[in-house]
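Bug: token stream looks shifted between consecutive jobs. Job 1:
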Amino acid sequence: MSNWNWNKFTQKTQTRQPIGFLIEAVKILGLSNGNALDLGCGAGIDARYLAENGFNVEAIDFNKESVEQTKKFCKGLSVSVNQKNVADYNIIPNAYQLIIAWNTLSFLTKDESRKILLNIQEGLIKDGIFVFSLFGQEDDWVKNHPEMSFWTIEELKNLLFNVNFIKLCEEKRIKPGATGQVKFWHLIRGIIQKKTV
């Protein structure tokens, strides 16, 4: 979104807690080490949480301020931070125990988002977990943002064929976002685990 103030978003989210779905996913994995990928790391809260729980983390964001903030926040931890567009990031196959993309992929086109979701599926090792939040098709932004992608649960299930949906939630309500803008949100959030066979 060209008119979205990413610097303001980074500033406003510096003090939030790690995503609850991510905390749950780390407990499910029960690991003391592993490789994790944070696509759209923002202020670095989730990257830091993963590193503090034994993961080697790759944190990606296209926004310079987000990258700088994440580097500061994760200093001394096992976090590699890169400024790169998520759409262009090369996800290594069978490399990650955990990948998170929280409200990131919906800011890409549907084709870009679809391609990355398939790459994420391939990037997970067996039993690896993907934590995600996508925008649904009833979201207010559907009307004015054709450059974004909006999903249905059915589309997601049809696309990701080699996973089990451990947790899948849909939220529809009017509320303020991270920067204070009030709108109708339609969110599809979940935890997916790659099948072992």
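Job 2, same session, no restart:
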Amino acid sequence: MEYLPIIQTALDEIDRRITEDIQADDLARMANYSNDHFRRLFQNLTKMPLMNYITRRKLEFALYDISQGKKIINVAMEYGFETHAGFTKAFKKQFGYPPSLYRLHITPSPPVRVIARNPQLKGGNKMNYQVEIKEIAPFSIVGYASRHRMSGVKSIAQLPPGFYDIINLDYAAELTALYQIYNQYPHCEVMLCLDVDDEEGSFTYMMGVGVAEAEYATPLRPGTYRHAIPGGLYAVFTTPLSNNDNQTAILTATWKYILEEWLPASEYKYDDSRTGYEYHDERAHDDWRTDGMCCTEIRIPICKR
């Protein structure tokens, strides 16, 4: 395509001026094309309207800056969003979920240079994810909660030894004891994040076991909490089978697929009136029942865009 070098120049110019008020006229003039013709060429190649691409790219750069500890309001204004709420609204419109969800589950890397041959190429995720859209009934969990700062915890599935692994190690015996008390609900452990504070950069992480309605009156053990999981429509992602040693890495990869590929391209958006969570049932235990292999469900609350 003879216009590839022209579009590549435009892509690089957008990155170079990423914090400026970039207008289509400026880029078209640089390419010596009319505004309408340049916009058509750009969209033919990127499969995205020019101004949408610019907004998306600004959000990618801004999200990385926020992940490095900069205040959201300062970053939002630097990239042309007048308020924290305006930044969040633009992010949700572009990707289908709030920026706090990405910050919790993915450790962002600096945005890489976009190549004009295929700007939307994600790197070729080869894992096969089983995805179901289904209604899930409400239920409750009882377990342990702890407060954390995002500046110190970049993501739930951190590099080894892993945030989940640390908490599981701390509470393994306690969770086993909870199963002795709450044994009427199907065997499961649930992990989720609550009370996310973007400005403070903190969240509550909770791990608990499923509780049947008949067990609600059971007195809570010291240090435990009960939390209601709302029902409704969920996208349920089942991770590929693997041995237990690889589960943290696979959970991280699955969240990355959900947030960077599936949700932005989906007809659904994240319903942030509810909370997504990881659901570990008998399949999450790599013992004789699963021939040494295990998998986990990630349940994402969704609604139509």
